[in-house]
């Protein structure tokens, strides 16, 4: 009787430490709960980590990025009476956080005058002595044309550089100026009227 009691106590102690259907090593497929630390490690290894791509850090002196450049087409007036010639210019602003560099020379500038869908005048049609001019743009400090371009209110084309040109319609006709500098285009056009 004493021997049977001792065997029962030993079996109870064994069952407490070694549960039926489980293994102490927590091996996969054993049916028992694995070691919590091993479960976490396995989970972390199986789940692909999410990598968020980051843009290269901009530095002073880098080429200007399109998202940081604001180009504005400018005219000296919005209404021109008969005989008055529009003066065209451009303002460029760096909206980024670093000094950036672009070509603001006349070779990199294109002034375009349209009315409706029709292009009436293009500054590059008969351009002479165009130059490159690399400039550094300080954030928040606009630069603008030092000398405006005077438009003589005529149509342009590469075939009319040495001869007479046709005068554009007036009598309140509406025109739009857009400007591109070093590939960066003005987001909006500047509207004006000719009389």
What does this structure look like?
- There is one protein chain.
- This protein has 195 residues and is an alpha+beta fold.
- It has a domain at 62-194: Immunoglobulin-like (Sandwich).
- Helix content is 14%, strand content 30%.
- The chain contains two helices and 13 strands.
- The protein has helices at residues 2-17, 36-46, and strands at 62-63, 69-75, 79-80, 87-94, 100-103, 109-115, 118-122, 134-137, 143-144, 149-150, 173-181, 184-185, 190-194.
- Strands 3, 6, 7, 11, 12 and 13 form a six-stranded mixed beta sheet that branches. Strands 2, 4, 9 and 10 form a four-stranded antiparallel beta sheet that branches. Strands 1-5-8 form a three-stranded mixed beta sheet, with no helix packed on it.
- It is elongated.
- The N and C termini lie far apart (125 Å).
- Residues 1-9, 11-17, 22-34 and 36-44 have low confidence and may be disordered.
Low-pLDDT parts are: 1-9, 11-17, 22-34, 36-44
CATH fold title of the domain at 62-194: Immunoglobulin-like
**N-to-C SSE series?**
HHEEEEEEEEEEEEE
Assigned CATH architecture of the domain at 62-194: Sandwich
What is the molecular shape? elongated
- CATH C-level class of the domain at 62-194: Mainly Beta
Which percent range describes the beta-strand content? 25-35%
Main sheet properties: 6 strands, mixed
**CATH-level-4 superfamily name of the domain at 62-194:** Intracellular proteinase inhibitor BsuPI
Q: What is the β-strand count?
A: 13
The level of helicity is: 10-25%
Average per-residue pLDDT, rounded, comes to: 82
Number of helices: 2
Q: Could you tell me how far the N terminus lies from the C terminus, measured between alpha carbons in angstroms?
A: 125 Å
Question: SS-based structural class?
Answer: alpha+beta
Computed CA radius of gyration, to the nearest angstrom: 38 Å
């Amino acid at each position: 009787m004493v021997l049977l009691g001792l065997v029962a106590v030993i079996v109870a102690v064994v069952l407490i430490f070694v549960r039926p259907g489980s293994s102490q090593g927590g091996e996969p497929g054993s049916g028992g709960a694995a070691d919590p630390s091993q479960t976490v490690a396995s989970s972390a290894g199986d789940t692909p980590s999410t990598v968020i791509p980051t843009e290269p850090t901009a530095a002073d002196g880098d080429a200007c990025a399109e998202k940081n450049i604001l180009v504005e087409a400018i005219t000296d007036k919005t209404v021109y009476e008969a005989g008055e010639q529009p003066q065209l210019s451009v303002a460029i602003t760096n909206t980024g956080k670093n000094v950036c560099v672009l070509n603001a020379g006349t070779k990199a500038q294109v002034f375009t005058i349209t009315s409706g869908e029709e292009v009436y005048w293009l500054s590059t049609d008969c351009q002479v002595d165009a130059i490159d001019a690399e400039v550094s743009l300080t954030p928040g400090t606009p630069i603008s044309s030092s000398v405006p371009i005077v438009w003589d209110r005529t149509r342009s084309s590469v075939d009319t550089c040495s001869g007479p040109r046709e005068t554009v319609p007036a009598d309140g006709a509406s025109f739009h100026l857009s400007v591109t500098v070093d590939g960066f285009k003005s987001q909006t056009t500047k509207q004006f009227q000719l009389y």
